[in-house]
Specification:
nine-stranded mixed beta sheet, five-stranded antiparallel beta sheet, about 400 residues, single chain, about 25% strand
């Protein structure tokens, strides 16, 4: 399937993607490059939605399922002084292509976009259904939020998440929640602290109690970890004032079946019990609300609760993907992601049949001198081609 010419095209396209810096909220140049390229490659339609995600599609000649290949086009920032390679050059050295986003996840974006075009060309569109590629914005900030807009537009039957998996198949992940706890006190001069109520001391009390809460557990996904990640008091700097407000943020890893209500319930119970014993204890628990500006000028806003999900490895659509990959000489392990992806929306919220399959190692994401092995890029493109073919042909 991959000729020498097609391999050269893959490298060239990936270099072009990397050479276009695309931090979250700054994806315009990459989105417009993908739009123009997709039309050149033979995609039938290209749509850019209100958040700036780019959605490309090719329709087969017969009725059939909609298969969406999902990859984010935003990246985390770079501290260029720490890199020994050029982060936005796309240099190829000893079989590795370096650059921010090469593994997370412009390599997968490139493979998906071109695999769809190659398949449609080779089959002369003699397939049943419609294939889509979505280049998603703001995933690094909001896993699954921008994906909701794509889901409403495409209404997919199957989703392939392209996050790094080292060519293994992923059928689940823990989700992620960002929990905010606030304590409220009474300001006073620090020379007379007894006249105030120190919100930080109240926060210290509930933090101790939260640490004693049992973690939820799933036999496959592991523990629903609840970890303190930051704490702030107000006023800051204090300047001889007893703080009347304190805010702590917790990262909560979510398991299948956990809801927004069920996750907060144990903490709310603690607050109720502590308030009943101490009339000066006032606290609130909620989810963090994120708001970011998109390159289109629109705001993307969302509560930071991204569900976990998992499917059965014996499900027909999973086994079809396994069979397709084995037929091209790959031997994928069936496992789950250790981090959060857009699957939180597709599988966790919308119950769409979803798999994860991508190139490169998971631990290369966000690293200094990030790279992708060219062999991984070639193999993942062949893999996307094979999975698309098995989903869209009889």
């Amino acid at each position: 399937m991959l000729t020498k010419e097609r391999k050269e095209t893959l490298v060239n396209v990936l270099q072009n993607l990397i050479q276009r810096q695309s931090y979250s909220g700054e994806e315009k140049e990459v989105a417009e490059y993908i739009k123009d390229l997709a039309l050149e490659l033979g995609y039938d339609t290209v749509h850019i939605d209100k958040y700036g995600s780019v959605i490309c599609s090719i329709k087969g000649k017969y009725e059939g399922p909609k298969v969406l290949m999902d990859g984010h086009i935003d990246t985390v920032p770079v501290d260029e002084e720490k890199w020994t390679k050029k982060p936005f050059a796309g240099e190829v050295i000893d079989g590795k292509l370096y650059g921010r986003g090469s593994s997370d996840m412009k390599g997968a974006d490139c493979g998906m976009l071109l695999a769809g075009a190659f398949l449609a060309h080779d089959l002369n569109k003699e397939f049943a259904g419609e294939l889509f590629f979505s280049g998603v914005v703001h995933e690094e900030c909001f896993e699954g939020v921008a994906a909701r807009e794509i889901s409403n537009y495409v209404k997919p039957d199957y989703v392939i998440i392209g996050e790094a998996s080292q060519l293994n198949l992923k059928i689940g992940q823990r989700g992620r929640g960002e929990i905010v706890i606030e304590t409220f006190g009474k300001p006073a001069h620090s020379a007379n602290p007894e006249k105030g109520i120190n919100a930080v001391y109240k926060m210290m009390e509930i933090i101790k109690k939260i640490k004693e809460l049992p973690m939820t557990h799933h036999e496959t996904l592991g523990y629903g970890i609840l970890e303190l990640t930051d704490i702030k008091s107000s006023p800051y700097p204090g300047a001889s004032v007893v703080p009347d407000y304190c805010r702590a943020t917790y990262d909560r890893r979510l398991l299948v079946g956990e809801t927004q209500e069920s996750v907060l319930a144990p903490i709310q119970k603690l607050i109720d019990e502590m308030s009943a014993k101490d009339e000066t204890f006032k606290a609130k628990v909620s989810y963090a609300i994120g708001k970011e500006k998109c390159w289109t000028g629109n705001d993307i806003t969302g509560e930071r609760f991204f569900p976990g999900w998992i499917y059965n490895e014996n499900d027909e659509y999973v086994q079809k993907a396994v069979k397709a990959l084995k037929e091209i000489g790959q031997n994928p392990e069936i496992t789950h992601y250790n981090f959060c992806t857009n699957g939180s929306h597709y599988a966790g919220e919308s119950n769409v049949k979803t798999i994860g399959y991508g190139p490169s190692k998971e631990n290369l994401a966000h690293t200094i001198d990030e790279y992708i092995e060219l062999e991984q890029l070639y193999k993942v493109t062949e893999g996307y081609y094979a999975i698309l073919k098995t989903y869209l042909t009889k």
